[in-house]
Structure formats: structure tokens, C-alpha cells
Specification:
mainly alpha
């Protein structure tokens, strides 16, 4: 499995480097995005907004963390199902199925590069924010941020596997899930505190894992909250991670089995 994963990483890296101009555009896009976030944050920072006080009243940091980490949620929701879909469209999936490589190994390995590059983008977001726009993260509590991050990733990956299961069974179900995921991330507070939402949307946000991800990361990075202080968010994320992982571990083998019986595994 490790050799397969490394082979996929090498392949995806070489593909990316063959499009150097696109790589440069992505880096430039990060610089432009952080610049826009900074000026938006400066504009809002003039106002005294009560709902930003828990985060130090720093809308630049609030927005930057929300957008930077939303990449992971987007990748998790889209990457697994997208790779299955691409494999079906290009015929790669059918070839994989005739080889000793397991479908889960293919799914996991083909998504690794997306996570590696998203991590690189995350570092770029922080480097530009800290050294160009003087974002202050001196209070960061690394253990608390790490725990929130790991639990969030487990939840996001499980959602991605469920999305891939839908592709195998109903072919187009992932698009609906992506739309739901996109709306969920906005409702969860990527751009603004959930307290600003209408009361019914605010209540819905409490049932979404993204809400606890963004709040926990912001409080641990900007305000230095400890694991004990974030106990509520960690407990909620642990529950989401366990439930979604359990569902994904049942859904994916079921989807593969059903698609094999119907002979539709490589169809689109």
C-alpha cells in the first residue's frame, strides 16, 4: 500500500510540475486572496463587533483561518468522489479493478497528493499572513489546535468516503452532497460568526461538524485556548468523527459490493 501511495504521489507531483504556469497562478491566487482578506479584515476591524470579541476582535485572523482550513473540508468532500468519477470517465478504474490493487487503496492513494498540496497552501496562507500582513498568532496552543485538526480531518475524510460511496451506487449523488457541503461550510461560520445567522440557521449550525472545527481552530490559534477550554468542541468533533467513520466503513464496502453485483463499478 505504501509503494502504491508513493507512486500516486509521484505521478500527481509530476503532473502538477508539468503545468508550471498553473502552479504559479495558484501561488499568486493565495497572495491575492490573503490581500483581500487583510483589507476586508481591516475594514471590519474598525467597527466594535461583539461577536468577534471571543476571537480577539481580529476579523483578519478570523477570516483567514476560516478560508484556509475550509480547503481541507472541500478537498475531503470532493477528492474521493472526484477520483472515483475520473477513474470511471477515463477507464482507469476498470484497469485498477483488474489489478491486485484494492479499490480502497486506489481511493486513498489517489487523494493523498490533494492533501499534501492543500497543506502546502495552508502554510502559504499563514506565511503570507504572518510575515506580510503581521497576523499575530503568538498565543497559539499547538496541542489544542492539533487535536481539533485531527478530529476534523477524520470527520471530513469519512464524509468524503460516504460521497464516493454515493458515486458508486447512484453515480450523481456526489453533486448534491457537494452542494450541501458548500452551504454547510458557509452556515458553519467560514466567513462570519454563526451568532450573526438567523436563529434557525444558528441552531442548524450546531448540528454540523464544521462549526466546531472553525471555532476550535480560531480559539486555539488566535486566543490560545487549551484542550480543557475546548472540551465542548472536542467532544462534539469526537462524536461526529465516530459516527461518520462508522457510516463510511459500512457504506463503502456495501457500495462496492452492490456495484460489483450490478456490474456497474466502472460505469458512469
Amino acid at each position: 500500500m505504501i509503494r502504491t501511495a508513493l507512486a500516486f504521489i509521484k505521478k500527481d507531483f509530476l503532473i502538477m510540475m508539468s503545468y508550471k504556469f498553473n502552479f504559479v497562478l495558484q501561488i499568486a491566487g493565495i497572495l491575492i486572496m490573503v490581500t483581500i482578506i487583510y483589507f476586508l479584515g481591516s475594514l471590519v476591524g474598525i467597527a466594535d463587533i461583539p461577536f468577534l470579541k471571543p476571537y480577539g476582535g481580529n476579523y483578519f485572523g478570523f477570516l483567514m483561518i476560516g478560508i484556509a482550513f475550509s480547503d481541507y473540508a472541500g478537498i475531503s468532500i470532493n477528492s474521493f468522489s472526484g477520483n472515483i468519477r475520473d477513474g470511471q470517465l477515463t477507464g482507469t478504474l476498470e484497469i485498477i479493478l483488474t489489478s491486485p490493487t484494492r479499490l480502497f487503496t486506489f481511493l486513498f492513494s489517489s487523494s493523498l497528493w490533494s492533501y499534501i498540496f492543500t497543506t502546502f497552501r495552508l502554510f502559504m496562507y499563514f506565511l503570507v499572513s504572518i510575515f506580510v500582513f503581521e497576523l499575530k498568532i503568538g498565543m497559539i496552543n499547538i496541542p489544542a489546535a492539533f487535536v481539533i485538526f485531527v478530529l476534523s480531518m477524520l470527520t471530513f475524510i469519512a464524509i468524503g468516503i460516504i460521497s464516493a460511496s454515493l458515486v458508486l451506487v447512484v453515480k450523481q449523488g456526489d453533486s448534491a452532497l457537494r452542494r450541501i457541503g458548500g452551504v454547510s461550510m458557509v452556515v458553519s461560520g467560514v466567513l462570519f460568526p454563526t451568532e450573526y445567522l438567523p436563529s434557525f440557521l444558528n441552531k442548524i449550525s450546531l448540528y454540523l461538524p464544521f462549526t466546531y472545527t472553525y471555532r476550535g481552530l480560531r480559539l486555539s490559534i488566535l486566543q490560545g485556548y487549551s484542550i480543557t477550554q475546548l472540551q465542548g468542541d472536542i467532544t462534539a468533533l469526537s462524536g461526529f468523527a465516530m459516527v461518520f467513520m462508522a457510516v463510511s466503513l459500512i457504506a463503502f464496502p456495501y457500495a462496492v459490493k452492490k456495484a460489483k453485483i450490478k456490474g456497474s463499478l466502472a460505469q458512469y
